[in-house]
Automatic annotation (TrEMBL):
Keywords: Amino-acid biosynthesis, Aromatic amino acid biosynthesis, Decarboxylase, Lyase, Tryptophan biosynthesis. This is Indole-3-glycerol phosphate synthase. Belongs to the TrpC family. Residues 5-258 form the Indole-3-glycerol phosphate synthase domain. It is an enzyme of class 4 (lyase). InterPro entries: Aldolase_TIM, Indole-3-glycerol_P_synth, Indole-3-glycerol_P_synth_dom, Indole-3-GlycerolPSynthase_CS, RibuloseP-bd_barrel. Its EC number is 4.1.1.48. Pfam families: IGPS. CDD domains: IGPS. It comes from Pacificimonas flava.
Length: 260
């Protein structure tokens, strides 16, 4: 376990057995079936015209930065993102490194109308059903944590539950695997999840290799309007932003300032 991603994934896998015992899959399936229908995540991104399509992330802490935001009022943050003009939200549910919680997703969803991406480390089919049972509209699949079979199976399950899939890559080999999936949403993470280093050049380099029928979502390390303009010119059409906005007291104003 030399890098952060492997450590997190190992921890996730170790939690799974307990979770499955506490909440057996059939019960979870029933919960998922009882949820309101998924809101269109991809559709909401595609509906944005004339300004940047932003996915506003609700994130309290991160492995690279520690605590990011002290005053963490989820409904207030969620509604501020709406008022600021975000197209979608992303909610961290990972508890140990990001201080997230499953409840944060449920609370955010009850607080506003935008589609929500469940941001976590999903490596097992159980977690896909769990995401829908929590009310997620979309899930993140991280190619660096999955082989191509796992990615394909998890994607199929997510689609069966009516959720959109954002597949995350950070190099050429992962992009090649991601393009074999059905989802049109290709997230390019500027942060290397193994070393935690951030380079906007990652989006610039990889976006060029994404066919025109896919949609590039630039992720991580975006801190200004000019970063968004720069990556849009490189081919990104949506932007996933957490820390920059989470550090601002006024989330609505910070969102507006970024997307115009
Ligand atoms: O806070 P930032 O640098 O704006 O990044 C947001 C988002 O891209 C980042 O939280 C993220 C991208 N991929 C992930 C996978 C797991 C956990 C977190 C992430």
């Amino acid at each position: 376990m030399s890098d952060t991603l492997s450590e997190i994934v190992a921890y996730k896998r170790s939690q799974l057995e307990t979770k499955k015992r506490k909440m057996p899959l059939p019960i979870l399936e029933a919960k998922a079936a009882g949820q309101q229908a998924p809101r269109g995540f991809r559709a909401a991104l595609m509906a944005v015209h004339g300004r940047h399509a932003l996915i506003g992330e609700i994130k309290k802490a991160s492995p690279s930065k520690g605590l990011i935001r002290q005053d963490f009022d989820v409904p207030k943050i969620a509604r501020a993102y709406v008022n600021g003009g975000a197209a979608c939200l992303s909610v961290l549910t990972e508890d140990k490194w990001f201080q997230g919680a499953d409840e944060n997703l449920q609370i955010a969803r009850q607080s506003m109308h935008l589609p929500i991406l469940r941001k976590d480390f999903l490596v097992d089919a159980y977690q896909i059903t769990e995401s829908r049972a929590l009310g997620a509209d979309a899930v993140l699949l991280i190619m660096a944590a999955l082989n191509s079979y796992e990615a394909r199976d998890l994607e199929m399950m997510a689609r069966d539950h009516g959720m959109d899939v954002l597949v995350e890559v950070h190099d050429e080999a992962e992009l090649e695997e991601a393009l074999k999936l059905k989802t049109p949403l290709i997230g390019i993470n500027n942060r290397d999840l193994k070393t935690l280093e951030v380079k906007l050049e990652t989006t610039e380099r990889l976006a060029r290799q994404v066919p025109g029928d896919r949609m590039v979502v630039a992720e991580s390390g975006l801190s200004s309007r000019s970063d968004l303009d720069r990556l849009k010119a490189a081919g990104a059409s949506a932007f996933l932003i957490g820390e920059t906005i989470m550090r601002q007291e006024d989330v609505g104003a910070a969102t507006k300032a970024l997307i115009g």
